[in-house]
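Researcher: If convenient, please comment on what follows.
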Amino acid sequence: MEQNDFNQQLSNLNNTPDSTGAFNPNDISNNKVMAILAYFGILVLVPLFAAKESPFARFHANQGLVLFVASIVCCIVAAVLSSISSWLGLIGTILYIVIVVLAIIGIINAATGKAKQLPLIGGIQLIK
């Protein structure tokens, strides 16, 4: 029974708002690569400047920018915790894993032409 609860919670993790229908299908197909680039750290700047007229690319650039800022925060938290104790440094490792998983989810969403918010941090909007 507990395994089913865990599986249900895991499947609900990516049950986030999906606004794909609000985007032009041509915009989605023309800017998938730009949207994917948004999830590779500093490369979030590429769609911000190269595809600034694409609502789909901007949606994913916002998600990627939030993820990039979160990764910087995680880096700082991990450094502080690991300087206190190596055991606390494990928390930093877990945070890095979460960042990578969120990036993979974002890449999959962008590659499949979906405009879904990332779990946990997707509701934050830095770019209009």
